[in-house]
Amino acid sequence: MERLIVIIGPTAVGKTRVSIDLAKKINTQIISGDSMLVYKGMDIGTAKPDLDERSGIMHHLIDILDPCEEFNVVDFQNYAQRLITQINSNGLIPILAGGTGLYIRALLEGYQFNQAPSDENLRQKLARMAEQHGNQYLHDMLAQVQPQTAVRLHVNDLRRIIRALEVYHLSGEAVSQDKAAPNRLLYDAVVVGLTMERAALYDRINRRVDLMLEQGLVDEVSRLLHKGVPPDCQAMQGIGYKQIIEHLIAGKDLLTATENVKQATRNFAKRQLTFYRSMPYIAWYNIDEFDNYNNLMEIIYNNVAGKFCLR
């Protein structure tokens, strides 16, 4: 089996720093498992590590697509599988770092997603219904025909709600994935989970959003819009971008938009932690329980070194 190290955890917990420091220690490369880092020109709102922060470590799946291009879990699986094979063939153990839980789990457990047909006219019709009646209206429609799918999707996750309704109306099936065996990993992997006390995490999220605004998030979103990136495309519906678009286009005041970014990010972190509960193979490390960062890194390194005989 190919070897793999995975660093996951909720947004803002510190995955980037840990993955880079570990990569330097064992001389390897990093594969991003974040669905937003693939987009060029979307740097501040995604907390993308810049070249200095990357410290000369090779990073993959960063800045590979234009913002108007779509990227989904199947695309990620295809890219990541090739990279894992390539890096292993060079005698290195790749580090997969990211917080998009479905992407990570789909890769590790080998999800086979159904390839349902699509219908652009139906999607547009459903989108108009959402505009006229609100997101809750479509969410209620989905709950009537696919209650299990509706439970998994937040009422504001309009894109996935529309896709689920589209798949159901075209095929009579739910958007689903098939696994050969639950929780059986396709890789010889160490899966490191970083976490911290909820209040501390939320405080870190709030401070990071404030920093994004100081670094020029509004200008970044404005620049993307002026380049012709549609405000309703997949990438621009990401947390941070969607709320700033509401400020720039709909006239919502910046203070309210900023608070909405913070709330959406905190909610996202909570959903991430809930999702990770379905992955029992994660070895969790509570950052608050360590005296300092170096102690945390030493324990993580020892775990990895013991697994792969790196001593």
UniProtKB/TrEMBL annotation:
Binding site for ATP: G9, P10, T11, A12, V13, G14, K15, T16
Reaction(s) the record says it catalyses: adenosine(37) in tRNA + dimethylallyl diphosphate = N(6)-dimethylallyladenosine(37) in tRNA + diphosphate
Region (Interaction with substrate tRNA): 34-37
GO molecular function, one term: tRNA dimethylallyltransferase activity
Keywords: ATP-binding, Magnesium, Nucleotide-binding, Transferase, tRNA processing
Residues annotated as site: Interaction with substrate tRNA: T100, R123
GO terms under biological process: tRNA modification
Domain of life from the UniProt record: Bacteria
Tagged with keyword Hydrolase: no
Entries under Pfam families matching the protein: IPPT (PF01715)
E.C. no: 2.5.1.75
Keyword Magnesium annotated: yes
Cofactor(s) recorded in Swiss-Prot or TrEMBL: Mg(2+)
UniProt-annotated binding residues for substrate: T11, A12, V13, G14, K15, T16
Record note on quaternary structure: Monomer.
Function: Catalyzes the transfer of a dimethylallyl group onto the adenine at position 37 in tRNAs that read codons beginning with uridine, leading to the formation of N6-(dimethylallyl)adenosine (i(6)A).
Family listed: Belongs to the IPP transferase family.
Name listed for the protein in its UniProt record: tRNA dimethylallyltransferase
Source species of the chain: Sporomusa malonica
Gene name per UniProt: miaA
